[in-house]
Amino acid sequence: MSTPDGLLQRTDSPSHGALDSFYRASRFLASILDLDELLGALLHEGLDAVGGTRGFVALVNRSNGDLELRITAGRGWDEMPTRRLPITDEPGSGITVRVVRTGEPYVTGDVRRDEHYRMFFPDVRSEIAVPLLNRDGRAMGVLNVECETVDAFDGRDLQLLLALANQAAIAISVTNSRARETMLIEVGNELATCSNMDELFSRVVHSATELLRADDGALFQLNSDGEFLLLRAGGPLLADHAGKLTYRIGEGLTGSTARDGLPVRVANVRDDSRWRGLYPPLPADMIESFLAAPIFVPDGMWGVLRVLRRRPASYGIRYDFTDRDEELLETLGRQVGAAIAQHSLLARQLRLERMAAWGEMSARSAHMIGNKVFALRGQLSELEHLASGDAFSREAVLALSQRSRQSLHSLEEILADFRDFLTATYVEPKPCVLNTAVESIVCETIPEGGPIRVELELAPELPMVSLDLRRFSRALSELLENAVTHLGKAPNSRITVRTGLWDEEERRTFPQIPFRLSLASGSGAVRIEVIDNGPGVPLENKKKLFNAFFTTRARGMGLGLSIVKGIVDAHSGVIYEVGEEGEGARFIIILPALGDKASEGNLK
Q1: Comparing 134 with 12, which gets the higher pLDDT?
Q2: Burial group, residue 472, by CB count within 10 angstroms (0-12, 13-18, 19+)
Q3: pTM here?
Q4: How far apart are CA 221 and CA 570, in angstroms?
Q5: 16-179: CATH superfamily
Q6: CB neighbours (10 Å) of residue 600?
Q7: From 20, 115, 134, 456, which residue has the greatest number of CB atoms within 10 Å?
Q8: What separation, in Å, do the N-terminal and C-terminal C-alpha atoms of the chain show?
């Protein structure tokens, strides 16, 4: 602690006014939720309590090495040419910068005689600057109070400002912790609902980078032989190298994490003999801090999640990872392991269910095909009888031929359903314009001039989507044909096909649809609705509507909507029926979008 001689020798107890200030500050923590409002209240309380005329709260920006003025009070701040102070160890960099670098308070009774003072206002004479320290002892910022009188502050003033600075540091830490906890919960929810593994891995890397304020991240998976790690997903600097970069077990810091099954944290990679820098996402001389955590699944080691930070812009501050950062990455690693295990379990369960469905489908198909073959045999026998008889009837032969064609058509439908059911989840999506695809499918499925009126409501400027057009056409046409069947020949029959964004308003309108947006992409989602004014779906049928073999029709195998759901699932989307019985059916398909950069409007 640096002060002029004798300034802090007083040990008088704080006055009642100072205690009142401290108690009011304590109440601020409980009553004010906005951080800037709280810091402003603490600054003004400090100014009033010690008789200061001007002050500020500045926070450290570790990425650019600056001390940034967050809250100011008093005259003249609006005329300040800059609100950033570079954190350097150069002489004359300022008392505030010195406090941040050393983590110690500083008091001066006459700034004109102080070698560290950097003049902003010519009327300043006395100054107190106290650090805002986190629980790791690192300075997050500084509380600064100035006065126009020489030797204006004493030891009691310093004690009070230290207490207020401690309150401010607690508020900042709590705010940061809440933000991290909220993001961690959101990440957990995202991982629990993600069905696409590549998307899941990208989300994990993005989340780790955001949570730990890192410059880049990467996720490596152990190969089946346990010999090397393969990059599965990377941040913006390594994303293009997924599936190509590898580390042998024990090689470098990343390989050491997998070999030992323990987190690895290094403040400066160049000081660690294990560092190899084989595939640095940043130039080797710019990488500074390294943090990696192993990922385990019930069967053992699965891989490694790592993050990197570049060398800080100023060596006057520490920017390496902390104990809390390590705990956070380990927590995220456990979440990832649980999500991978859950996905594997669901995939295994899905395979078993599909195998069971295939078995049931094979039995049903064999029975239905057998019936059709039996009918065809009878029709062929009847044809032979007609051909060998004396009373040959052309009309009878044509009628028999028509019945045979119908039997063959039924066989083709059974085989087509069987094929579509088996291949519904195998898609090859490509970027496409949603409205163009929807309009084309509708026109092909329901030609104009029929008894059913079809209305297209296509929202403009939608982001593009990634679709396997052949598969998606099968899904959307099935919904349209399903609507046509249920409408029958009822007068004033109408089908509405609508597109639009899946936004917050839609989510509130249909809370039963559990579609979550990706944290990683932030690209949003689109919806496609197929609405009819037919009888609607009875409530008791809604939960089994997409089950294989469920049908209310006299004909068919009941695979249509099950195939639709499989195709939508394969596109990382969801489908729900949200209509009211007696008012018509309403199917909503929600698909992830590709983002604003690839929008339909950009193609015009």
Answers
A1: 134
A2: buried
A3: 0.57
A4: 23
A5: GAF domain (3.30.450.40)
A6: 19
A7: 134
A8: 66
